[in-house]
Amino acid sequence: MKKALIVWGGWDGHTPKESTAVFAPLLEAAGFAVDLREGLDAYNDAELLASQDLIVQCVTMSEITGEQWKNLSAAVRGGVGFAGWHGGIIDSFRSNTEYQWMTGAQWVAHPGNCIPSYTVELESTHEITAGLNDFELTNTEQYYMHCDPAIQVLCSTEFSGEHGDQDLYPAKVVMPYAWTRQWGAGRVFVACWGHTFKDFEVPEAKEIVRRGLIWASK
Asked: What is the DSSP string of 56-74?
């Protein structure tokens, strides 16, 4: 049986407890023994991290200590998968640029905060997105990020220019919105949606993350 460590916490506005509760049973159904932990104390235990097949993180903002980062990075570089969504993975530790390097991006802004709707377009025939279609997200955030050009883009979103300051969020900008990358021997998967657990009521949004978590563990 594979092992998955789910770490949640940080800003409550991103519903970390409720969002991780969406995926814990899906991982169990996929054959994982799931260990749910609140806060970052688990990152103090290098042996625990190295023993996992997958680490799922949903911790917005917060601070990671030097020792915690060393343990997490070593585990992933050693082959443990690392995955997550929205601010729980790409707005976690703003002062740690090496963490941002591992995840492939850092959130910097969102136009208009909660906006009526936007489209997520599939960009790849990767196994994570195979057989699925573009989808709409409603009453949620659209992320503007600084991204590593080395990521493998699975999905993207285009900014309409209707929300936020048009001189800051120009229309027709296309932003990566789900991707994979390697960190040493470890697979990393990121999805940018998931502002709250309600985003995962959209079947495609939930299924891509479910598949991404499982893919990262291989």
From this structure: EEEEES----HHHHHHHHH
Alpha carbons 124 and 103: distance in angstroms, whole number: 19
Instruction: Give the DSSP H or E segment for 212.
Output: helix 203-216
Give the C-alpha separation, 119 to 138, whole Å.
9
Best CA proximity match to 105, nearest among 52, 149, 170: 149
**Spatial distance between the Cα atoms of 107 and 86, rounded to a whole number of angstroms:** 9
d(CA 5, CA 75): 12
- 6 with 35: CB under 8 angstroms? yes
Distance of alpha carbon 42 from alpha carbon 49, whole angstroms:
8
Give residue-wise pLDDT tens across range 75-89.
999 999 999 999 999
Q: Which residue in 90, 100, 4 sits closest to 54, CA to CA?
A: 4
pTM value? 0.98
**Cβ atoms 132, 122 nearer than 8 A:** yes
Burial class of residue 61 (count of CB atoms within 10 Å of its CB; 0-12, 13-18, 19+): middle
Contact 175, 190 (CB under 8 A): no
